[in-house]
Write a structure and sequence with these properties.
With about 250 residues, the protein is α+β, with helices and mostly antiparallel strands. Helices cover about 25% and strands about 30% of the residues.
Length: about 250
């Protein structure tokens, strides 16, 4: 009888120890979502189409989310946000629930020159693309309903690990297109030559890093520059963590 009691108590102790171990493992797992490296893309949106032909090569995405919870918005003033691990895991789960892990198009064939939101969702290292028309009668589609979740300015403060701040890229792409004659009063471009580099949507692209990248961003307010006797229209495009070079701007 005494032996039986000892055996039962030992079993209870082992069971309690096992439960505690399971609980601890679950806590550790919840705090460290496995989404690849810090710079691995998880979610991205960009606007394409319309009469203006939006979303061409070199256009900065509206929203990009990375494996460490960083989110970077486009526009005139790119901004960096940081999700907590729990909020990041929840957002990724909701993206899967919205059907974004399967590439598809939500369209209306009766709409000409429509504008689209293109959502890229990376799972298992593979990108899946959902194209959602912004006009028409598809507001109830799960992908369309999910889109507002990808507007960081509306995220609850409790879902963010730090305050939003301006995005400071370590690399920028300088996109230069020759301008019509008559810009002789444009100032001289002080950095790498604008005439050499790879082609991105009809513009010459060069990548600047470090001090030159910071200098280029300060010069971005003036659209026209002269370089080696030619006038150029210049755009300084911040490169995102998953964009190492000019080739990334045409993908």
């Amino acid at each position: 009888m005494k032996t039986a009691v000892v055996t039962v108590l030992a079993g209870v102790a082992l069971l309690a120890s096992g439960c505690a171990g399971d609980s601890q493992a679950q806590t550790d797992d919840s705090s460290s979502p496995s989404l690849g490296s810090a710079d691995a893309l998880v979610l991205r949106t960009k606007t394409t189409g319309g009469f203006a032909g939006l979303g061409g090569p070199g256009t900065m995405p509206d929203f990009s989310l990375y494996g460490d919870g960083r989110a970077i918005t486009g526009g005139a003033h790119p901004t960096e946000y940081h999700l907590t691990p729990q909020a990041l895991r929840r957002l990724v789960a909701d993206a899967s629930a919205a059907g974004l892990a399967r590439s598809r198009t939500v369209d209306d064939r009766n709409m000409a020159d429509a504008t689209y939101k293109v959502i890229t969702f990376v799972t298992g290292g593979r990108p899946h693309t959902t194209k959602v028309i912004q006009e028409g009668r598809h507001a109830d589609d799960p992908a369309a309903r999910f889109l507002p979740r990808l507007v960081p300015s509306s995220w609850p403060r409790g879902d963010q690990s730090t305050d939003p701040r301006p995005y400071r890229p370590s690399r920028v792409a300088v996109l230069a297109a020759t301008a019509p004659a008559g810009g002789s009063d444009a100032p001289k471009w002080p950095l790498k030559p604008l005439s050499t580099g790879s082609q991105v949507g009809g513009r010459t692209c060069t990548v600047l890093t470090g001090h030159d990248a910071a200098s280029a961003q300060r010069l971005a307010g003036r659209p026209q520059w002269r370089d080696r006797g030619q006038t150029y229209r210049v755009t300084v495009r911040p490169l995102l963590p998953d964009e190492p070079d000019c080739a990334a701007l045409v993908r």
